[in-house]
Design a protein that fits this description.
Elements: E1 2-5, E2 8-18, E3 26-33, E4 39-45, E5 51-53, E6 55-66, E7 69-73, E8 80-83, H1 85-88, E9 100-106, E10 109-114, E11 118-125, E12 139-144, E13 149-153, E14 161-165, E15 171-174
Antiparallel strand pairs: 1-2, 1-5, 2-3, 3-4, 6-7, 6-9, 7-8, 9-10, 11-12, 11-14, 12-13, 14-15
Length: 175
């Protein structure tokens, strides 16, 4: 959710409701300013009123990288949006051309992206397994097309396409 806090537009990242022993209940929240991009922890009393700002989500596809920035396009209107590397964060490890993501906008400005649960990536480098190393569930390191290194089973070879879980960064299956 997005809120207006101290005259600034903020996105709520995490919320915890706490009720300590003999004190009044409060809400501990982590918020990020849309304007400055800085995160902070804030404590709200249970009686405090907040102004909720509407958020809009749109399905978009990753198009290409422009210098450092990432360009996404709407598949229906072909409108493009350029996002900074700070906003993309760890998602850059799973972005390949035409990957569908959900971009969240607050007052016309992109504030976050959500990856699909899994993506299909090409294995760029997977060294051969060591002979005799065939016990159950033996894994080897492999480098994928986006540059990330993950652990894969011994039978995966260079040039194959595999499905990777974007939440955990682990190998799921061959694609």
């Amino acid at each position: 959710m997005a809120i207006s806090y101290n005259g600034d537009l903020c996105v709520v990242l995490d919320v915890q409701h706490r009720t300590p022993g003999n004190l009044r209940a409060f809400v501990q929240a982590s918020i990020r300013s849309v304007r400055t991009g800085k995160s902070s922890d804030v404590r709200f009393s249970s009686t405090e009123k907040l102004e909720v700002v509407p958020m809009i989500t749109r399905k978009m596809e990753f198009s290409y990288m422009d210098q450092q920035d990432y360009v996404f396009s709407d598949p229906e209107t072909f409108e493009t949006v350029t996002l900074s590397p700070e906003l993309i964060g760890d998602a850059r490890s799973y972005l390949t051309e035409n990957v569908a993501v959900v971009v969240t906008f607050v007052e016309g400005k992109a504030v976050s992206i959500e990856l699909p649960p899994s993506v299909v990536l090409l294995v760029k480098d997977a060294p051969e397994g060591i002979k005799g190393d065939s016990a159950n569930n033996v894994l080897k390191p492999a480098t994928l097309e986006t540059g990330i290194a993950i652990q894969v089973p011994l039978f995966i070879k260079t040039g194959e396409r595999i499905k990777v879980d974007t939440r955990t960064g682990k190998y799921m299956e061959r694609a």
